[in-house]
Amino acid sequence: MTERLDPIDLRLLAALQQDGRLPNTELAERVGLSPSACLRRVQRLEAEGLIRGYRAVLDAERLGYGLEAFVRLQLARHDAASIERFVHKVGQWEEVIACHALTGEMDYLLHVLVRNLDHFSHFLLDEVLREGDVADVNSSFVLRAVKSGGVLPLPTA
User: Fold this and answer.
1) Same domain, residue pair 87 and 127
2) Which terminus of the chain has a lower count of CB atoms within 10 Å, N or C?
């Protein structure tokens, strides 16, 4: 797909990663296009799936989420039904803001956001460990975010 991206497409993607709310006229000016040509390109990039959506970045702490953790877990069984059941359950846990299947000793990495340690304890003991498919859990709490919300590196044209 990247072979079809020209320098203007890359500049569009870079600008929209920084500010997805840029008005089309300002975006067009930044990348050196007319507003109509800019809009057509952005629509093409959306239709091709390179731009998957737009969202607001919220302040978790101001919304009452004071504790962030990464939870690595290993499943007891790795048959299709167990994996499907676990994946379905993860989708129901609002505390999990991201989940990744891993290689290595642990099977999944959950990025968890909770109000406080009591909330985390309830989530871990009453939700995660209640699942019979979980064999091992290892949690790490975030002391501070050194870098987060990064943008994707774009290829050079």
Assistant:
1) yes
2) N
The whole domain housing 96 covers 67-141
Specify the CATH number for the domain of residue 120: 3.30.70.920
Report pLDDT digits (tens) over 20-61: 999 999 999 999 999 999 999 999 999 999 999 999 999 999
Rounded distance, CA 20 to CA 118, Å? 36
Angle, CA of 127, 130 and 132, to the nearest 5°: 130
Indicate whether this model's pTM tops 0.70.
yes
Residues 74 and 42 in one domain: no
